[in-house]
Amino acid sequence: MTTTPEEEVLETTTLSTQPAPVREPSLGVVGMMRWGWRQLTSMRTALFLLFLLALAAVPGGILPQRGQNPIGVRAWIEDNPTLGPLLDRLSLFDVYAAPWFAATYLLLLLSLAGCVLPRTRMHWRAMRAKPPLTPRNLSRLPVHRSYATDDAPADVLEQARSFLQDERYRVNAYDGSVAAEKGYLRETGNLVFHAALLVLLVGVGMGSLLGMSGSALVIEGTGFANTPARFDVLETGRMYGDDDFDPLSFQLEEFRATYEESGAKRGEPRTFEADLVVRDTPDAAERLVTVKVNDPLVVGGTKVFLTGHGYAPRFTVTDGNGDVVLSEAIPFLPQDGNFSSEGVVKVPDARPDQLGFRALFLPTAAVTEDLGPHSTFPAPIDPAVFLASFRGDLGLDSGRPQSVYSLDAEGLDLEQLGLKALRVGETYELEDGAGSITFDGWEEFATFQVAEDPGKELALWSIVVALAGLLLSLGIRRRRLWVKATTADDGATVVEVAGLARTEAGDLDGEVEAVVTALRKE
Amino acid sequence: MAVNETLATVSNDLVYSAMAIYAGAFVAFSAELAFGARSSARPALHTEAAATASGAAVRTLSQATTQAPPKQSRFGRIGVALTVLAFALHLGAVVTRGLSVQRVPWGNMYEFSLTAGLAVTGVWLVLLWRGRDVRSLGLFVVGPVLLTLGLAVTVLYADAAELIPALKSTWLVIHVSAAVLCAGVFSVGATASLLYLMQSRWERTGGGGRLATLLPTSASLDRTAYRTNAFAFPLWTFAVVAGAIWAENAWGRYWGWDPKETWAFITWVVYACYLHARATAGWKGRRAAWIALAGFGCFLFNYFGVNIFLTGLHSYNGL
Questions:
Q1: How far apart are CA B111 and CA A260, in angstroms?
Q2: Could you please report the per-residue DSSP string of B148-178?
Q3: Do B234 and A270 touch (CB under 8 A)?
Q4: Choosing among A8, A49, A50, A512, which should be mutated to test the B contact, i.e. which has the most B CBs within 10 A?
Q5: Is any Cβ of chain A less than 8 angstroms from the Cβ of B186?
Q6: Cβ–Cβ of B280/A6 closer than 8 Å?
Q7: What confidence tens digit (pLDDT) does each residue in B159-207 have?
Q8: Which residue among B59, B230, B266 sits closest to A474, beta carbon to beta carbon?
């Protein structure tokens, strides 16, 4: 902004009255603390901490994070064996749980609180104080107009007072002038915004202490009960006990998916729906609820979301003795958009040897030279399973933890038998009379996210209030107007109207002009 | 639900027509820069009074001048007229795309880019219509819009189709429309900040040639940048909050540090820095403008970078 001569004069005046540098006495402990507090709560520090917060959040926006993408983290560390562990030690794969991230936002909040509290006190005083005394020289103000009139000074000032009051200014009449100020809501909004951010953090904290979230896989025709044991993944807040689970349960009757059937987007999903028979409590009546992706089941404070789905092929296995040792649907993990799904069938009860199968379920099966067996459409139009069979010891008693989705033959006493592709109803007679496996058909499964967050209402309301405060603090301008009427030497009344914007932007010229117009019209 | 292929084709044709007219506007604005008629001497132009002349009829007594508003060149007027025409065609393209699939036209990156480009032009035209001194920004608004549309029809293009289930929600209308509008306002704000940085340098060094005389004063550019960014900030807050409500309703948590959420947060904090910087001595002016540009960089990264290079829950790019 260009400096006007007036501003330059003002600046020199300020500089000339600045006290000469003095030798500062030693501060002492209390003084040091007070100095530290001042530094922490200064705008410059707040700005610095905001920068730091943005900067601290960046690595979590680029590197994969454990909470969101644990597989990605493992892959990243494996691909970068030197850098990976180093970054891991710096919590760069758990940024938002890292102590240094917490330190940044806690310092920022402390700085915020230390800024908001004294400003609230000041604003409280300012709101009850009179608009400030009219400056001696109004022509020095950024906006200034004057005109001569025959009206008496007292009349002009009375008109000005009533006009400004109608314009909702806070007005105070001084001797020979009127002072007015408007836009106090700006600072109110500003303070409300910052205070509401503190409340928001309380809401977030409540959620992580008193809330829970977990995911569970449910096969069609089976049920789910909201108890810790039933979850595949479960996170509970520090103050969330086993008694706090809402006692809901449901049965997955049917899962339905539809897909785009032709064109460039062939295979893209169009609808997902899960029909549930729900009991809100063990004694409650059953009710039928259809859950969709953006339409969860709500029971009390708990919500159940449909988050994924897949296929669970059904097998019957007989062992070498001719006994049926397994007959169930086993969930397979989808590997691509067309639901080529991988899974394993482990039969520890088979005798004389245990049996194991690594399998691929293809809802619409195709085999090409490039891709091998794969699926070409996500719906089960022409399903098939491809099996690799093993016999021996599955190692389930070794105490080594195993995934139910993988069969790692390495290190196990397993003998590979044959490979086979099966369609529904077909049976594979294993070599050497080791047993047989029949592909009976399939069920679909759905994965559900179950979540309870008692802090979310508080978080929502605080952010709504914060937004309202933000709109006030950015939309309202604080400005002062003064009207002065003096009698000139020739007996005429000289009226001066001047304005000072205490915040940038806005049409102060127009407002001063409006006062002048109103006064001259009378 | 079937896609209306005829309307989808009309939409595509309108996009190309709009691009042709935008290109015409771009040429006209360039011609204004090359042969423009804003001939007044620079020192006179660069007073406060001249900058506010178009917006406020009243001049202060201490600064009163008799300077008339700078004369618009014929090329500049042609540029504005062509931009209005291109905007109408562009609007038609967005509306027909929406009608062809019977939903809001922002379900993938192609559609979002198409609509966001419309928002950029729209915001500039609204500012112009409300008498702000932004006309000479035309070249720097139409250029990026043209680039965005070019990217949309080549790299990001996706055929008209029904939505995936994750996007079938009322919140798509609320959350994404707010984000689209933010794209429009932030873009104009960033343009003003960038030009402010150039102009404030030229005002000190006397460089910049014809462009410097064509552009508003640095003070005026700074004001435009502040107003647009201060308008966009609450809107962006709203967009993020609406997204959080949707996330709570779709995934069971309102905030999960998904890459898209993370970058939305970073963008928000950087723009908060900008607003604070403007109220901090020593950070006003050029430093604040740099922060605004950093914020816009984060906003762009959240769109292109996160959608294309990072994996997360917001995988709707349609590529």
A1: 19
A2: HHHHHHHTS-----PPPGGG-SHHIIIIIHH
A3: no
A4: A50
A5: no
A6: no
A7: 888 888 888 889 999 999 999 999 999 999 999 999 999 999 999 998 8
A8: B230
Chain B residues 88-127 with CB within 8 Å of chain A: none
Q: How far apart are CA A265 and CA A270, in angstroms?
A: 10
Q: Do B277 and A265 touch (CB under 8 A)?
A: no
CB-based contact A50 B59, cutoff 8 Å: no
pLDDT cut 70: percent of chain A above it: 93
Q: List all residues 6 or more positions away from A283 whose beta carbon is below 8 Å from its beta carbon.
A: none
Contacts A–B by Cβ distance under 8 A: 166
Instruction: Note the helical H segments in A41-173.
Output: 43-62, 70-79, 83-89, 99-128, 153-166
Q: Indicate the pLDDT class of residue B67, thresholds 50, 70 and 90.
A: very low
Q: Is the pLDDT of residue B59 over 50?
A: no
Residue A52 CA to residue B270 CA, distance in Å, equals 10
Retrieve residue A406's tokens: 């993988």
Contact: A474, B238; criterion CB under 8 Å: no
Nearest to B159 among A68, A265, A451 (CB): A265
CB distance A203 to A455 below 8 Å: yes
- A449 with B254: Cβ contact below 8 A: no
CB contact under 8 A, B252 and A449: yes
Is A394 in contact with A354 (CB distance < 8 Å)? Answer: yes
- Integer Cα distance of A179 and A482 in angstroms: 5
d(Cα A508, Cα A510) in Å, to the nearest integer? 5
Average of per-residue pLDDT across A232-261:
92
- Select from A151, A93, A48, A99 the least CA-distant residue to A487: A151
Residue A240's CB is within 10 A of a number of other CB atoms, namely: 17
In the predicted model, is pLDDT for residue B46 greater than 90? no
Q: B252–A471: do the CB atoms touch at under 8 Å?
A: no
Instruction: Give yes or no for a contact between A291 and A306, defined as CB atoms under 8 angstroms apart.
Output: yes
Tokens of B223: 């004001």
Contact residues, A window 450-489, toward B, CB-based 8 Å cutoff: 450-451, 453, 456, 459-460, 463-464, 466-467, 470-471, 474
Contacts of B69 (CB under 8 A, 6+ apart): B50, B53, B54
Which residues of B fall within a CB distance of 8 Å from A509?
Answer: 52, 56, 58-60
What is the spatial distance between Cα B247 and Cα B241, in angstroms, rounded to a whole number?
A: 10
A378 contacts on B by Cβ (under 8 Å): none
User: CA separation (Å) from B153 to A110, A468, B35, B115?
Assistant: 49, 39, 32, 13
Measured distance CA(A500)–CA(A6) in Å, rounded:
14
CA atoms within 13 A on the CB side of B253: 20
Q: Per-residue pLDDT for A14 more than 50?
A: no
Q: What angle do CA B211, B192, B121 make, to 5 degrees?
A: 100
Q: 3-class SS at A319?
A: strand
Q: Of B164, B280, B311, which has the smallest distance from its Cβ to A43's Cβ? A: B280
Do B243 and B261 touch, CB atoms closer than 8 A?
Answer: yes
Q: What is the DSSP letter of A295?
A: B
Q: With H, G, I as helix, E, B as strand and everything else as coil, classify residue A515.
A: helix
**pLDDT confidence band for A366 (50 / 70 / 90):** very high
SS3 A309: strand
pTM of the model: 0.85
Please judge whether A263 and B283 are an interchain contact, meaning their C-beta atoms are less than 8 angstroms apart.
Answer: no
Where do the H-state alpha helices sit in chain B? 5-35, 42-45, 48-52, 74-101, 109-129, 138-154, 170-171, 177-205, 209-214, 218-251, 259-277, 286-300, 306-309
Where b means 16+ CB within 10 Å and e means fewer, B113-137 reads: bbbbbbbbbbbbbebbeeebbbbbb
Nearest CB among A60, A69, A474 relative to B234 is that of A474
